[in-house]
């Protein structure tokens, strides 16, 4: 059985939601970053961590790729052109949206006060909104890859929810509708109820 270490308020939410979508049993340890529970399995203290059979995988994107590949669900087959497009979208969302949100969080409450530069958040919000606009133009179906829900849909939804909580700019109408549809999914709702 899988064990997910990380609070649902972190990127562990992505992993928890994916496991719920896949209907895979797991246990959940709602540990915060740098907590003793997180450091016991991952020397960096970062979450999420997926533990199985004495080994572990860290990083939400790596965990999600593993889960998709091992179940052949919520992903396209490794080595296919569609999978390359899916991975490109996943990494793009990580690079262009997630990173802006994370740097803003670091300069809001993660870094020591003397290391924070609050003014950088103006640029991060602009960059986020600009990149989100480009992504919205490419949304052709109910999901980013068209008719099939895949890993980048989970990552984008997580970023949109995070941005809303961080008071980042509202998404364009197409992505706002996308977010409403994704948030109506029972698996997301189950994951959102976890600590």
Give the secondary structure arrangement, pairings included.
Blueprint: E1 2-5, H1 12-22, E2 26-29, H2 36-41, E3 49-52, E4 55-58, H3 60-71, H4 81-110, H5 120-138, H6 151-165, H7 173-183, H8 186-192
Parallel strand pairs: 1-2
Antiparallel strand pairs: 1-3, 3-4
Helix pairs in contact: 1-3, 1-6, 1-8, 4-5, 4-6, 6-7
What is the SS-derived class? alpha+beta
Largest sheet properties: 4 strands, mixed
CATH fold node name of the largest domain: Glutathione S-transferase Yfyf (Class Pi), Chain A, domain 2
Q: What is the terminal separation in angstroms?
A: 19 Å
Strand order of the largest sheet: 2-1-3-4
| Text of the CATH class of the largest domain | Mainly Alpha
Order of helices and strands, N to C? EHEHEEHHHHHH
CA-based gyration radius: 17 Å
* CATH architecture group name of the largest domain: Up-down Bundle
- Proportion in β-strands: 5-15%
Q: List the total number of helices.
A: 8
Low-confidence segments:
none
Query: How many individual domains?
Result: 2
| Fraction of helical residues | 55-70%
Mean pLDDT equals 96
The strand count comes to 4
